[in-house]
Amino acid sequence: MAVSSLSVCVINWNTADDLVNCLGRIYAEAANDPAGSEPVEVVVVDNASSDDSVARVASRFPQAKLIVEEQNGGYSRAANRGIAATCGDFVVVMNPDVALETGSLATLRDFLASHPEAGSCGPKLLNPDGSLQPSCRRFPTLATGLMRSTILGRLLRSNRATRDYLMTDFPHDRPAEVDWLSGACLALRRAALDQVGGFDEGFFMFCEDVDICLRLNQAGWKNFYVPAAAAVHRIASSTSQRMARMTYEWHRSMFRFYRKHYAATHSWPWRALAVTGIGTRCAVGVAKAWWHHLSGGRIAHKG
């Protein structure tokens, strides 16, 4: 089977150390890929970092294409700009706090090449301690929203809606078609991306991965979890720097996703309940984040 070209797009904001480690692993894997007939194409999109990310990439990895944004326009916008600067048949969009394990890029590339029905696929993600970090989900439902956005979820922690959404019954050691995959590391077929129009830039951060997987699914493509590819993901390397803002953005994205994909099919009482739940959860989360900040980090933020 002929090897199709692969591009990697890394979206960065103020995570220079993670970024250097991430790029080092990408280039090391590409150099050791026996099927690779040409150097891997890597694009780094920097969202107006204030640290030395740009200088370190330019110095350590001059072969990478570096796009420096003048202001942080969000993850989706950066992803679209990075993808547009690549030419591979397949594009892996990833966070800099993801460290790929040996052979994972080739595994994702080969899976897409051998499964023409796949619009996307994603690896198994691990926490830094080696434990599983669930990275695939079922599409959310109204019941999911109620349980995860209201006090009901606190009172009924083992409810079926949450279990179904989180796929707690799913054996994460085998490949399978799934609803959606974490955008921390997501391999996409360019033809599928072109068909659905790329990432929705209305999502500044969060939910853009659910949205694009849903739109791929609606367009007839499938999304696959591929545990033969693996990566360690240090969650929230960027978002933890501004917890209150990121908590707000998370809930704003939840609201946008609900309005875009579900609101039209729900009667007004259910719409009101969903919006009230998201708004209340947002207000509580932002208040907790600010209290955490003002208390000097002595109170754990649980989002």
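That was protein one. Protein two is written in the same sequence-then-structure order:
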Amino acid sequence: MQLHLAPMEGVVNARMRALLTAIGGIDRCITEFVRITDQLLPARVFHRLCPELEHGCKTPSGTPVYIQLLGGEPGPMAENAARAASLGAIGIDTNFGCPAKCVNRHRGGSVLLDEPELLYQIIKSMRSAVPASIPVTAKIRLGFNDDSKLIDIVSAINDAGANGLTIHARTKSDGYKPPAHWHQLAKLHDVNRIPLVANGEVWSPDDYQACKQQSGCSDVMLGRGLLARPDLALAIKTQSLGKKYHRDEWANILLLVEALFNDSVTSCAPRHVGGPIKQWLGYLRREYPQAQQLFDKIKRLNSAADIASAINEHRDYHLIVAA
């Protein structure tokens, strides 16, 4: 069983990767995408999105991090994959799943799923440009408007020499609306010859088991579910061994929220200092009612001092209640 942390644009950056992997259970992270157009990007772009390059492409707790590229031209994708490898990337992922209209309009992300031959050329060129010791993987959806080309897409990615494939079990047209169609992955095992990772709508250990049964995949990528419940990967692994697992209490989650806030104070512009924790609380409130309470306290606050005061007040109140 492998559990991967999804590359959620604007959410799962290096700070979040460090916090979540420290809890345990996550086997691999993938960066937010590096947008590739028609030129070779400077090293600083790769280092900005993957500061883990300075530490062997691993988070502080030792979890491997792959660099993800997004683009629609084989040549530039290959050149930039080679650059990433030269900078120390230990794995390179390719984004063929992004549903954002602005990305799709510029021939990137999920719009390429309508062109399996182009997917083949992109992966083939990247595979040829990168040393054999460095995996080249891909992340896709079931299709663009529908799943009619799914077999062709998977065959193209396999034939091009990819080393792994993650499938978000929805089309671009589905967006993020439930359900995820895990059963669609089951039919792919006859044509797929590389590790296959299921993605979409896994919010709990029970969801993981359902996904595994319907898709035939034991490897899963977790995104919003892991942001809503930071110990989800650890819970899945523990319960899969038949052991009992007690969900992390809010007091422990609050420590992570505070750590993110303290990091934001030093790394964000003053007017944006509350943005990261407000965003994360938006996910956490699905699983923790206390997250909703804290969000309500800080949602209109902007200064670091005011937000810190609200967090302290929230913590002190819950310590009293717990006592």
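The mean pLDDT is 94. Keep this in mind for the problem set.
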